[in-house]
C-alpha cells in the first residue's frame, strides 16, 4: 500500500515539475481591456453633397455593403452615355462590310489585270479603296476601345461616390446627414467586434512565459461576466524601460456579438512553464 502511494506521488511530481524536474507548470492572472479589432472612420473619395445614408448607429453591416451615396446624377448620366457609345457596333459592322467588299473588288481587279483585261488605273483604284477601308475599320475599333476606357473611368468616378463598408461590424457613430457637403471628413464610424482584441500590460518578470499561440481564459467584468477562451496573437518584442512592462494581445472570438468592447477583464493563463 505504501509503495502504491509513493508511486502516485512520484507521478504527480513528474507531471508538475517536468520529466527532468527542472520545469514547473503554473498559473497566473493579469488585468486587461477588451477592445475592437478594428475601428474605421469611413469617408468618401470624392467631394459632393450627401444624397442618402442607408445605416444608423447600432446597425450590423457586412463588408462591401453600401452605406451611403453622394448625389450621382451627373456621374450616372456620363456612365450611361459612354456605355451607349461602347455598345454601338453598327459603325464597326458597316466598316467591316466595306472592307470585305473592297478586298473582294481588289482581288477581282488584280486577277483581271494579271490577264490584261483591265488597266493599271483600275487595279490601283481598287487597291486604294481597300486600304482606305482598312484604315476606317481600324479607326472605328480604336474609337470603341477609347470609349471602353472612358466607360471604365466614368464607372470608377461613379463608384467613388458610393460608400461601401470596409469590414463586417457595427455602426458606432453617424457624423453626417443627407444634404450635407462631404469633403474630407468621415461620414460614419465602424468597429469590428469579431474577433475582439484583449490587450494586456505584462510585467517584465513574465518575459518568456507567454508565447504566441498560448490559450487563456478571459473573464469580463460584471455585469457581462462569464468565461471565454482566447488565444495569444502578439507578444511585443520591446520592453518599455520606464514601466518595466511589455504588451500582449489575445484574439477573442465573438461570433454572436454578445460581448461588447471597452470592458475591463481578468485574463488567466494556465499550465504555463516557468523558464
Index terms:
275 residues, alpha+beta, Elongation Factor Tu (Ef-tu), domain 3, 3 domains, six-stranded antiparallel β-barrel, four-stranded antiparallel beta sheet, 4 helices, 35% helix, elongated, disordered N terminus
Describe the structure.
The strands form 2 sheets. This protein has a 6-stranded antiparallel barrel. A 4-stranded antiparallel β-sheet has the order 5-4-2-7, with no helix packed on it. Helix 2 runs antiparallel to helix 4 (120-159). It is an alpha+beta fold and 275 residues long. It has helices at residues 2-17, 73-87, 90-114, 120-159, and strands spanning 25-42, 48-53, 60-61, 66-70, 162-164, 169-174, 181-182, 188-203, 215-220, 228-235, 245-252, 264-273. The chain is built from 4 helices and 12 strands. The radius of gyration is 36 Å and the shape is elongated. It folds into 3 domains: 22-41 and 189-273, Efflux pump adaptor protein, beta barrel domain (Elongation Factor Tu (Ef-tu), domain 3, Beta Barrel), CATH 2.40.30.170; 42-68 and 164-188, no CATH class; 74-159.
